[in-house]
Amino acid sequence: MFPKKTSLSNVPKLSEFTSADQVTGVVPGLPALFVADLHLTDKRPQAAAAFFDFIVGPAKQAGSVFILGDLFEYWAGDDDIESAFNRDICEALNATVAAGTAVYFMTGNRDLLAGEGFARASGVQLLADMTSIRFGTRTLLLSHGDSLCTDDHDYQAFRLQVRNPEWQAEFLSKPLDVRRNFINKAREQSEIAKHEKRAEIMDVNADAVASLLRSHAYPTLIHGHTHRPARHTYLIDGHRCERHVLPDWRDQAVWLVFDGNEFTMCSGSEALV
């Protein structure tokens, strides 16, 4: 029914993950808020409620909001916008954009099929992975982060497959229910596979991070995906660099704030249980 799995021999080399698309003509407002890995679904009402609180509260008071992938637990295609849950999320985003906050969205591994239809419905501006943003003299390099987990060869082969335009076109030609069922089975298989892998191979590769920072003139890197929130510092070729890993919204709503000089991690008041 679907294209065959990509051979591991076709997994991109490290150098293939280092190109960035500059956001031309965009001057994001401050403060800038960064989130990732919310994994919103109607099966997690507390997380959805926290998102609505975030989008009508901190987001509306910000100059810009950057969603770096996996806003949704899954996205089966832009024709899934009409589901009540997805429509509510899009309407909330649209209201925030209409109120004056620029919202930028980058796909993750769970919602990689969100495209122009989603952007029109939600009012967000789509970003490529990787994207460089300039705030004065400061350059931030934004990514979902999964391309840096280069030690997980099986995942990288799967990533290459599902981001292939031909694979996506064939997948999107299937009925919506068929796509949803496929995604649900893929998620189940992914959870099983995680338990069989060493934890370290599911994190970013240190050499991949260093190569990426070097190739983009030593920016500050912000990403999600790994669910391992932290602030890392590096000295690469004599240049001091930072890497901020965004938290997932499994336990609490958390976002990173950048005021043009400093980063601060903020969180909602209630646990997502």
Q: Quick one: CATH class?
A: Alpha Beta
How far from one another are the termini?
A: 38 Å
Helix/strand order: EEHHEHEHEEEHHHHEEEEE
Architecture (CATH level 2) name: 4-Layer Sandwich
The major sheet is characterized as:
6 strands, mixed
Shape: globular
Q: Could you give me the name of the CATH homologous superfamily?
A: Metallo-dependent phosphatases
- Kindly report the oligomeric state of this protein: single chain
Strand order of the largest sheet: 1-6-7-8-10-9
> Could you report the average pLDDT, rounded to the nearest whole number?
89
Share of residues in strands:
15-25%
Q: What is the count of β-strands?
A: 12
User: How many structurally independent domains?
Assistant: 1
3D structure, described in words:
With 273 residues, this protein is of the alpha/beta class. It has a single domain, classed as Metallo-dependent phosphatases (Purple Acid Phosphatase, chain A, domain 2), CATH 3.60.21. Helices cover 32% and strands 23% of the residues. It is built from eight helices and twelve strands. The strands form two sheets. Strands 1-6-7-8-10-9 form a six-stranded mixed β-sheet. Helix 1 packs parallel to helix 3. It is globular. The relative contact order is 0.19.
